[in-house]
Design brief:
This protein is α/β, with parallel strands linked by helices. Helices cover about 45% and strands about 15% of the residues. The chain has helices spanning about 20-30, 40-50, 70-75, 95-105, 115-150, 175-180, 195-200, 200-210, and strands at about 10-15, 35-40, 55-60, 85-90, 105-110, 165, 170-175. The strands form 2 sheets. A 5-stranded parallel sheet has the order 2-1-3-4-5, with helices on both faces. The protein has a two-stranded antiparallel ribbon with strand order 6-7. Helix 2 runs parallel beside helix 3 (about 70-75). The longest helix has about 35 residues, at about 115-150. The termini are far apart.
């Protein structure tokens, strides 16, 4: 497993009513570096999933007291946060697999659990969640950039004499200061040709005289 998991992906929820299977999951996940929250029924699992720090990796038994696995999948998919759901079951019929996927499961793990397969399916979940986090970060960056651009759009009051602009706090400031604070631009002062000729005619004449 990758060692670059964010804090939110280092936690995992296991909901399994069979004590032997639950302990197997806890042992294997702890060896892989996960912080495991283990419960024995679906109702307790749903309570955990409604907390602010609920894990984004979730292992659910299909048949367990309280809320069963497929029903819990449906409840999870109603949340705004994406979670990777691995549904554990002894069922192997295609109809059951279709039913579980339709309920919201991302993948299946069949009992009795094969450790190699268990690790492989966890890696799939890890990659998907890491991709999801990367996309969320990019979206946040784009939103911030868009908000940044909006600050440079719209009607901007500018003094007709000194050319200062009025910012959002209703304070008049130099236009270069306003732009520097709201973009990545920095200013270096220079003279355009017109101003050079108007204010420094001697320097302008020097530039136009041919060199000897």
């Amino acid at each position: 497993m990758s060692q670059n998991l964010s804090n939110t992906l280092q936690n995992i929820l296991v909901a399994e009513d069979e004590s032997v299977t639950r302990m197997l999951f806890i042992h294997q996940l702890s060896k892989l570096g996960f912080s495991v929250i283990a419960v024995e029924d679906g109702t307790k699992a749903w309570e955990v999933l409604q907390t602010e720090e609920a894990p984004r990796l979730v292992i659910l038994d299909w048949s367990m007291p309280g809320i069963d696995g497929p029903t819990l999948c449906g409840l999870i998919r109603q949340q705004t946060t994406y979670r990777y759901i691995l549904l554990v079951t002894a069922r192997s019929r295609k109809e059951d697999i279709i039913s579980g996927l339709d309920a919201g499961a991302d993948d299946f793990l069949t009992k009795p659990v094969h450790i190699g397969e268990f690790h492989a399916r966890l890696r799939v979940g890890q990659r998907l969640l890491e991709l999801e986090e990367t996309l969320e970060s990019k979206i946040h960056q784009l939103s911030a950039a868009l908000e940044h651009v909006k600050q440079l759009q719209g009607l901007l009051p500018i003094c007709m004499h000194c050319k200062r602009v009025r910012n959002d706090e209703q304070i008049w400031e130099r236009v270069e200061t306003y732009i520097e604070q709201r973009s990545g631009a920095t200013f270096s002062h220079a003279l355009c040709n017109e101003c050079l000729e108007t204010y420094y005619p001697q320097e302008a004449n020097k530039e136009t005289q041919p060199s000897s």
